[in-house]
Amino acid sequence: MFEKLKILTDAAKYDVACTSSGVDRVSDGNGIGSAASCGICHTFSADGRCVSLLKILMTNVCAYDCAYCVNRVSNDVPRATFTPREIADLTINFYRRNYIEGLFLSSAVISNPTRTTELMTEALRILRDEYRFYGYIHAKAIPGADPEALYSLGLYADRMSVNIELPSEKSLNLLAPNKTRNAIIAPMAQIRDGIKESSRAVAKYRHAPRFVPAGQSTQMIVGASGESDYQILNLTESLYGKYNLKRVFFSAYVPTVSSSLLPSVETKPPLLREHRLYQADWLLRYYGFAASELLDEGENFNLYLDPKCNWALAHLEFFPVNVNRAPYEMLLRVPGVGVTGAKRIVAARRTRSLDMSALKRMGVVLKRAKYFIECGERNGEIKMTENAIIRSLLSDVSYSRLTAKQISFFDEPEPEAGKEEEIKALLGQF
Ligand code: SF4
What we know:
Elements: H1 2-11, E1 40-44, E2 50-57, H2 84-96, E3 102-106, H3 113-130, E4 136-140, H4 147-156, E5 159-161, H5 169-175, H6 181-204, E6 216-222, H7 229-243, E7 247-252, H8 271-286, H9 291-294, H10 307-314, E8 321-322, H11 328-331, H12 339-348, H13 356-361, H14 366-369, E9 373-374, H15 386-395, H16 399-403, H17 419-427
Helix pairs in contact: 2-3, 3-4, 4-6, 7-8
The structure holds iron/sulfur cluster.
């Protein structure tokens, strides 16, 4: 059983629809706890609690051959399969020992998507109906499964996700020939409609069955195919709009297989690119930005500046913003001002005029915001030109951060260019 657990929790680690630490620290025998425990990860429930989950695949025996995936049928890796009862027993035993509070269940495709979904449903049925388990469950929907099978799974799960995997149909056809765009989009639409119907029914009848009450999410691989950040962000925006997704997760492609269709195995995962996409995703969801404002067609994000700073520098005509008069929506667009900061500014300025020290007390990051705001005592030290602001912003960034092209778990080689050259490169001043 432990061998199966090792294989199937390891196989689940590439799924980022919930977050895990990636640390492999183990106890030396004199302490308690182990960050290396198989498959424990964390997620946030609808009421904001952080819950630990057993993150596991039902099987890694897959009938499909997605080029980017370690579990593809043509890859030679150790294989294992849990029965539905084994999954339920593991979860309930881990729960009783206080290791976990919930389950994240995914699976490779056993013979076909409908059969896989039925087996996953059976595991959740045993957990919910036989063991009376009320904890959080996140289940992956398998694209191509019969809608009835999918609906049954959704009645037991709190959250579901359908991985969109690749940002375009062209890449999907190339790298995941067994999957089609329609097979991925159809369950997303079904889950969206099922959630709506279920909320209407629950509003009328208290005991109506609840379908996926914590909503749905998806995951996209970044860097396995050639799509730009512009394409990825536009797709993200449209997924939020059309399918009411709670989250779109981005997963920097980790090269594990040699294929002429994929980046070489020596390529480092584009973690900084993934980070910029998460920042931009935040701007779409909480700051009122549209994808088309953040990037032009074919563009990728600037790896040196966060997307909000980048936007502000490209739109200096809107700045400086007067913090004592500007509308809330404009305050949100000031680098260094977050949602909480903007709300505090609007509340506080009703009774008094705000100055820089008041803004600092409210949590505004003046190191960034000072170039874009005025409040009667405008910071006059720095001329408001794009280059001057970039130069000044980057002088706050440490040398190692400035020269690092990519966040790495391993030692970086010595940078070739000096700090001054890096800034010049960024400003286009070779
Ligand atoms: S369906 Fe594709 S991505 Fe999913 S486990 Fe099988 S090979 Fe991997």
